[in-house]
Amino acid sequence: MAESRLSTIRKQRIEKIKKLRQLGINPFPYRFDKKHTCLQVSKNLGKKVKTAGRIMAIRGHGRILFFDLVDSTGKIQLWFQENNLGKDNFLVLKLLDVGDFLGVEGIVVKTKSGETSIDVTSFEILSKAIRPLPDQWHGFKDTEERYRKRYLDLLLDPTVRSRFETRSKIIRRIQEYLDRLGFVEVETPTLQPLYGGTNARPFVTHLNSLDVDMYLKIAPELYLKRLIIGGYEKVYEICKDFRNEGMDLSHNPEFTMMEFYEAYADYQRIMDVTEGLYKHLAQKLFEKMEITIHGKKIDLSGKWPRVEMTVLFKQKLKIDVEKSTKEELLLFAKNKKLEPKGNESKGELIYLIFEHLIPSTLVRPTWVIDYPIEVSPLSKKHRLKEGWVERFEGYIGGEEICDGWSEVIDPIEQRRRFESEQKAMREGRNDEAHPVDQDFLVAMEYGMPVLGGIGIGIDRLTMFFTDTWSIKEVILFPILRPKGAKNAGKK
Questions:
Q1: Measured distance CA(48)–CA(36) in Å, rounded
Q2: Which stretches of 157-258 are DSSP H helices?
Q3: What's the rounded Cα separation, in Å, for the pair 2 and 229?
Q4: Average pLDDT over the chain, rounded to whole?
């Protein structure tokens, strides 16, 4: 909408506010005793109702007007007749616009056209909108503007609101499932003296009262493990994580993560629990085991296969990575235009090739198991294969759905892993490496039980169950570049 036209409309509506005040009407009152939703109104034919909502359409002329009133449950038509309201009250309706909030009382009737309506006997202005709503039929043409003004996106497109309602249901059903299995939901610090739990660059802030730098949580893992050491046997957390990384269709610097840990379990047990969780969510959300991913129907029922990463390399790429040299893998990666840095270890090259070439081929539900030790700093050494760890990732429809493992419980081994990561960081091989967390290592030295754990992104989980493949579509207020900000910035 042109700024000049918007300015004119704002002035006109502000003038209407003045007129309402001159009539002794407060256009921004304090409360309204709403007794019925729009959905409930439609089920009370012949009865007196009292409801409220936003005006989304105005039509009619002369002594009869029709409004469409919308609330969170749906839409109802309002029928205003001058004979019922009186001339003075009816004239007040001329000061209303689409976007205003209105409270009404009246009898639910059927109009001559057969539409259920409220024959309004009294009304109250509850809020006067100064700006006009965008065209309801065309919505936003600019996708980024939808994200910046999510409140209008939600208002104009019911499918957007439905998607976020699904997200809320997913969180509640996760809690329901894990609580039933005896897990305890906990909270761990968002501000931490040292970041850890995964490989990622952190956000740094400063705590003035202690005059120390702090980090925003990149993962809850190390604190959840402290709780296991402290005597909990099953814990989980649904929390905000912050990683100072790039943004794309599946990454946002601020996101929601769920992690759970179970004592006396290994990665096989964690896969069992997680597979059950996905099936539970599908049943509760859709009342069936079939979901749609990228337009394809996928059946979640039955036992999901568990396939070693090395086997997938042989099946999909015809490579035996266990026998291949680092140089051979580096050449293969370059030929596939994967842009390796050149200083990766063999395990890092294996994972680089895997994550770029294999996941898209995994359409049916599949557990990929046993990963290179170099890319899994918190995973336990494989009990049979040297250089590999007991880690898994779940894939459905070509999309990664989760990441879990048998946990390292040997404090000496964990220290060695941390120090190896630090060395990789100093040598410039990994700028997202895990720092040495001395406090966590001390906690481990008091004894940690056999342990399995997993992390599942709530945002990606919502993408998965709504078949929506942009993370900005499942975060109510995603991070965007501020208007007018320059493209370049400090690294």
A1: 10
A2: 158-180, 221-229
A3: 62
A4: 93
